[in-house]
Design a protein that fits this description.
Largest sheet: 3 strands, parallel
Helix content: 25-40%
Order of helices and strands: HEHEEHEEHE
Strand content: 15-25%
Number of strands: 6
Number of helices: 4
Radius of gyration: 17 Å
Strand order of the largest sheet: 1-2-6
């Protein structure tokens, strides 16, 4: 596994690393909210291996979007958790409590936290200029329209 070989190389170089971040494209499809098993067959073994090699934490990043080919798109859409267009998919609105609970209980807790991941990077807040989202508009959420309820 590449991530474990990186951790081992950092150990050999005696680099002081506190966190190893598994960033963007760690899922098979944006919105699967599960590590791609081709790259991360065992999250628990990855977390344990990074800790053993570096005494470091493993962090996974999540982008709040789901593409139509993702495993969770239908569930998120049916629950009313998808909002405006975002990078070829739909942005996830985590402002309603039921959407946060759905994301945590069905996706993130069993697939990451219960496997030993205790740190997360909630990404994709940069201004990319996505059509109707983030960079040139912001996200309309349950808090209100982007013009009054966004952090741009």
């Amino acid at each position: 596994e590449i991530a474990l070989s990186v951790a081992e190389r950092y150990r050999q170089l005696n680099l002081p690393v506190g966190v190893l971040v598994i960033d963007y494209h760690n899922q098979a499809h944006d919105g699967d909210f599960a590590p791609d098993p081709r790259c991360y067959p065992s999250v628990r073994q990855l977390v344990q291996g990074v800790h053993k090699a570096l005494n470091a934490s493993t962090v996974f990043s999540f982008w709040p979007e789901a593409k139509s080919d993702s495993a969770e798109f239908g569930i998120l859409k049916a629950a009313g958790c998808l909002i405006n267009s975002d990078l070829g998919g739909r942005a996830i609105d985590a402002t309603p409590k039921h959407c946060r609970e759905l994301m945590w209980t069905q996706f993130l807790k069993p697939r990451y936290f219960d496997q030993g991941v205790t740190n997360y990077w909630l990404d994709e807040t940069d201004g990319e200029g996505t059509a109707g989202g983030d960079g040139n508009h912001g996200y309309d959420t349950s808090y209100g329209p982007a013009a009054v309820a966004t952090n741009l």
